[in-house]
Amino acid sequence: MRFTDSLWQEVQPIYQAILEHPFNQELAQGSLPREKFAFYLQQDALYLADFGRALALMGSRATSPERMLDFVKFAETAVVVERALHEEYFRFFEISQPATRQSPSCFAYTNFVLATTAHRTYEEGVACLLPCFWVYREVGQYVHRVAAAGNPYQKWIDTYASPQFAAVVDKAIALCEETAQATTAAVRQAMAEAFVASTRLEWMFWDSAYRMEAWLP
Q1: Exposed site from 48, 57, 92, 213, fewest CB < 10 Å?
Q2: What architecture (CATH level 2) is domain 27-210?
């Protein structure tokens, strides 16, 4: 079994919980309240700003020009393509002032990826960034298969279910696999722990959007 296959197998319970979460079930049905989707979009925009920084940081840590270029292209996908999607929905929902403060779960997730890419091994950094790509592709393809006709969120669904996005994810998986094969068993274990942690934070991000999570007190 490839290392990345073992990663995906390990997070199956978390992934299933993501698919079964009311946010994604209602997203597929087209019944997700607009205010919850708008909250999600604004938090996702804040998340992507820090995710782009983490990708750029990993590019600076890459040991070859090819891998550096890979991370630059990943950042372009995250920051340019997805920002365009956000802005389209901002116009649709007439959101003139995007959120400026991360929710607790968004804060936890972005600070985890920034800390891991900055202060842990390069290998752990690669692994912690992968769930954002991989989980979104799988969720996008699942929702695309079961989406109700006339879904108001079809543009979002189509973006993450697209062959173009799938190709980016395949590249990220291949990079992680290559990285894992070039290191030790102990480092691969640390990579697995980083991957699982990010996947858990993915679930928390969906859940926080559904609850429209706020800081307390």
Answers
A1: 92
A2: Up-down Bundle (1.20)
